[in-house]
Each structure stands twice: as C-alpha cells, then as structure tokens.
Amino acid sequence: MTLDDVKKRIKACAEQMDARYGKTVFDELAVVSLAQNKARVLAYVGPRNDEFLKNFANDLGSLRVELLGSDYGVGDFAFARQAAGTRFEAFLVLGAGVYLICNNTRESMDTIARNPNWLAAQVPFAELGDHLREDPLQATLDSGFFQKSF
C-alpha cells in the first residue's frame, strides 16, 4: 500500500469512528516514520501543525515504552489510557518503522473510553489494522521530510 492509499484509509477510518462515537475521537492524526532513529512526519492533520514534531518526544508519554520497546507487528496497536492533553492516546503500526499516531487534544483516552459508544467506534480502527496486516504501507523516505494533510 502506498502512503496515499494509507492516508485515504485513515481518513475513512476516522470518519467511521467519529460517526459511531457521535463526535470526534481523535482530532490529531499523524503518519510518522521512526526509521534511522529520526522522527519524520509523513502526513499530519490536527490543531498543532507546527508544534507536533517539536513536541513529539515529550508527547509520546506512556506510549514511548510501548512504541519503542515492544515487538509490535504491522496492524498492531496500543492505547494509553491515562494520556491527556497533547500526550498521544494511541498508535497503529502501518509498516516497517512507520506508525499512525492518534491523539485527542481535549480529552484523555480514559474519558473517551467511558463513553458507551467507544466499543463501536473501535471497530473501524481494528479493521484498519487487519487490512494493514494483509497490505502494509510500503513507504520510502527518499523525498525526505514533508507534511501533507489527509
């Protein structure tokens, strides 16, 4: 799958999640490469366009251990229940060294999960992971750092 394909699928997934939840689940979505121990934003949509990468290391918060220390495969994901503010709530592995970072800058994951609609809203997210297992992102970083919205 290409980056453009992934961006379309992420956008559709976010729309489905929001519809099932009844409001925006994640107001910040970013496709990030961590190849060569350097964070590169491949695509971003959200309220902190200029600050996202600058604050990336701090905003990883409790997901840092999960993201950097665990052996996740393509399509796997994790949530940080106590993340709040600009701290990232979730990630999904898109391909080798490339991740979807999800955040709600207004509510914590714990607050989001208390809504009874959260169970239904997770279905498109899990389905995106399943699809990526079959057709992972094949990203090349030849073009260097760039930002594009979804």
Walk me through the structure.
With 150 residues, the protein is of the alpha+beta class. The chain has a single domain, classed as Beta-Lactamase, CATH 3.30.450. Helices cover 36% and strands 18% of the residues. It is built from 5 helices and 5 strands. The chain has helices at residues 3-21, 56-60, 63-69, 109-114, 118-134; strands spanning 28-33, 40-45, 77-79, 90-95, 98-103. The longest helix has 19 residues, at 3-21. Residues 142-148 have low confidence and may be disordered.
List the helices and strands and how they pair.
Blueprint: H1 3-21, E1 28-33, E2 40-45, H2 56-60, H3 63-69, E3 77-79, E4 90-95, E5 98-103, H4 109-114, H5 118-134
Antiparallel strand pairs: 1-2, 1-5, 3-4, 4-5
Helix pairs in contact: 1-5
Q: Main sheet?
A: 5 strands, antiparallel
Total strands:
5
Q: Per the principal axes of the C-alpha atoms, what is the gross shape? A: globular
Task: Kindly report how far apart the N and C termini lie.
Answer: 15 Å
Number of separate helices: 5
Computed over alpha carbons, the radius of gyration is: 14 Å
Low-confidence blocks of residues: 142-148
Q: What percent strand?
A: 15-25%
Mean pLDDT: 85
Strand-and-helix sequence, N→C?
HEEHHEEEHH
- Strands ordered across the widest β-sheet: 2-1-5-4-3
